[in-house]
Amino acid sequence: MLWPLVLPFEITCWTLIALLVVATIAAPMFRKKRKRVFAWGFLVALVAFIPSCTAVMSLVDEYRFGIFNCPDFRSVNDFRVERYLPEPSTNITVEKYAQGYRARFEIGKQALDDWFDRSWEQNGEHSVVPRASDQEAKPTRREGFDHKFGDLGWEAPSDLIEYRGPEAGNGAGFTIWYSERGGVGYQRAGYW
């Protein structure tokens, strides 16, 4: 839940600590007392912490959130996405945001089914929702798909089938809508 704040917090803390140490060490070169420079520097660092953290977060978020295109699974390089994205996926488009991601990818039906079965075998015992007995029984309505993916410009194929993965008690999990005719999957995943 708070993971998006950790990196900006760490960068800001270490930067302010480094600046304070450098200013304290360099104080005698400017004929200032180290204790006085440290005290004033510490006060300035406290006052500047939240604005600095906010500025760092806005810079960092430009590189870690947004829409990314990857030719294959190995190119994703984000363990949060890799946790739920099928390994055999290719031609991947991922829109990452702080609480999860949405993805479009190409994958064969058998590869998706095998990966999905492994996912349930590995994580099913921790799921708060049971596995649906028959994935074929859940065709997707176009309105629901458009609500989830319409702003990305992804058109809903007419043969979408819904695959619901294991869901943790805190809401983390994924759902995939798959078109066998197009060999394309659409995924929405959330993490905590």
Key phrases:
alpha+beta, 2 domains, elongated, six-stranded antiparallel β-sheet, 5 helices, 23% strand, 192 residues, 43% helix
What does this structure look like?
The protein is an alpha+beta fold and 192 residues long. It has two domains: 3-63, no CATH class; 66-190, no CATH class. Helix content is 43%, strand content 23%. It has five helices and six strands. It has helices spanning 3-26, 34-64, 79-82, 109-123, 142-149, and strands at 66-72, 90-97, 100-106, 160-167, 173-179, 184-190. Strands 1-2-3-6-5-4 form a six-stranded antiparallel beta sheet, with helices on both faces. The longest helix has 31 residues, at 34-64. The radius of gyration is 23 Å and the shape is elongated. The relative contact order is 0.12. The mean pLDDT is 89.
Q: What is the strand tally?
A: 6
* Proportion in β-strands: 15-25%
Structural class of the helices, strands and pairings? alpha+beta
As a percent range, the share of helical residues equals 40-55%
Taking all Cα atoms into account, the compactness measure Rg is: 23 Å
Q: Main beta sheet, described?
A: 6 strands, antiparallel
Element-level helix/strand string: HHEHEEHHEEE
Inertia-based shape: elongated
Counting structural domains, the number is: 2
In order across it, which strands form the biggest sheet? 1-2-3-6-5-4
Residue stretches low in confidence (pLDDT < 50, at least 5 long) are: none
Distance between the termini: 5 Å
Helix count from the secondary structure assignment? 5
Overall mean pLDDT stands at 89
